[in-house]
Specification:
Helix content is 67%, strand content 0%. It contains 16 helices and no strands. The chain is globular and about 65 Å long. The termini are far apart.
């Protein structure tokens, strides 16, 4: 009944016009990265508000929603999982982490990854071995590779940059621009905290980087320095 109620409320919050906009924005057409994804047009603030009302639902119920064909139901489920993870004991955290990695086929859009990977995978692996991230980084699945690099955002926030740099190197020549953007973003986040660390990496690899990765990584650099990177004339 709880899942049915949530689905009914989401349908009530939805908008056909908004859904059409989201279908285009998230590239759901044939051959695009979000091919086949279904939107009902619920705004993110409304999803967050509804998630606060249903914090008490069980993990089993959350998983029903995560495995939905509807994008907003999966987004809602991840909001709940992130919340439950943050408030849970070690047993709960381990269970949510394992369920997350067992269900990556449903965490299949950049907004779903970006709002959850650091808070669950990154948080869980903070004081543990990082091998799972390297397996994800070498996955054939675009979203698993994005989970790998976005999970390291948690480490960055704790001034630990090692894994981000290593995974950035693995993904340096990735074929997908969504990975280029994610890597560039994480490098930029390192630079915001420790510019020297970012620049050591950039000076070594910037000429090999896809253009969009480079642009994201150097976005906050002073303009003269940005131009030297973009023109490949850094001394």
């Amino acid at each position: 009944m709880t899942v049915r109620n949530i689905r009914r409320k989401l349908q009530q919050l939805g908008s056909k016009d908004k859904a059409k906009v989201l279908q285009r924005f998230f590239k759901t057409g044939p051959g695009e990265y979000g091919e086949g994804d279904v939107f009902i047009g619920v705004r993110v603030p409304d999803l967050r508000k509804l998630a606060k009302e249903y914090q008490a639902i069980t993990i089993k119920e959350v998983m029903q929603l995560l495995r939905s064909t509807i994008h907003e139901e999966r987004f809602f489920a991840l909001l709940i999982l992130v919340s439950k993870y943050s408030k849970g004991n070690e047993t709960v955290k381990k269970k949510i982490y394992e369920l997350y990695l067992q269900n990556t086929q449903f965490i299949n859009s950049w907004d779903l990854v970006d709002g959850s990977a650091q808070h669950i995978v990154g948080a869980f692996l903070m004081d543990k071995g990082k091998k799972p991230l390297y397996l994800l980084a070498k996955s054939k699945n675009l979203w698993e590779r994005r989970i790998a690099i976005l999970s390291t955002f948690h480490f960055i926030k704790h001034d630990n940059y090692t894994e981000t740099l290593k995974i950035s190197k693995i993904l340096l020549l990735d074929e997908q621009d969504l990975i280029h953007k994610a890597v560039g973003w994480m490098l930029r986040e390192i630079g915001k905290r420790h510019i020297t660390t970012e620049e050591i990496f950039m000076k070594k690899y910037y000429k090999k980087m896809p253009r969009i990765m480079l642009r994201y990584a150097i976005e906050k650099f002073p303009e003269p320095k940005r131009q030297k990177y973009l023109k490949g004339k850094l001394l």
